[in-house]
Amino acid sequence: MNYTVLITPESKDLIQQHLELGYPNEACGFLLGEDHGESRTIQEVIAVPNVQKGDQKRRFAIAPLDYIQAERIALEKGLQLLGIYHSHPNHPALPSIHDLQQALPFFSYFIWSVQDRHATKLTSWRLNEQLQEFEEEKILVLTYSI
After folding, report:
1. Cis ω on the peptide bond leading into residue 24 (within 30° of 0)?
2. Contact 111, 92 (CB under 8 A)
3. Terminal alpha carbon distance of the chain
4. What domains lie within the chain, and their CATH numbers?
5. In a 10 Å sphere around its CB, with 0-12 CB exposed, 13-18 middle and 19+ buried, how is residue 114 labelled?
6. Which letter does DSSP use for residue 141 in this model?
7. Are 3 and 37 in contact (CB under 8 A)?
8. What does the pLDDT profile of the chain (146 residues) look like in tens digits?
9. Phi and psi dihedrals of 25, rounded to 5?
């Protein structure tokens, strides 16, 4: 299926700043917004710490309490928790085997390649449960704020 993700310029900028500051480690956070079936709109993002034990340059983990807090914030704002963003320091913006193993259905997964502290390419992926593989989503940056 062809999915499209719309994102506000402010949310895109916040993600980019967070991921560049987290370099050379992977940084991560949540995507909040509204789902419209084949499209969704990301209106807010929540940066969270990478709590991965060990090699944070190649892996990220999000604390369970951060998931709960993100759900609570989304509910309070009348939004949905739609996905997760994270960086791939000095690697392509393509899902890894680890990303696939950790993926949840419904979520959009933004992956941003960060090369030498500069975010270079942003992609978005959604798990196809039947095929157990990712399908790329089209990302469009809105020209206005919501």
Report:
1. yes
2. no
3. 26
4. 4-141 (3.40.140.10)
5. buried
6. E
7. no
8. 799 999 999 999 999 999 999 999 999 999 999 999 999 999 999 999 999 999 999 999 999 999 999 999 999 999 999 999 999 999 999 999 999 999 999 999 999 999 999 999 999 999 999 999 999 999 999 987 77
9. -90, 160
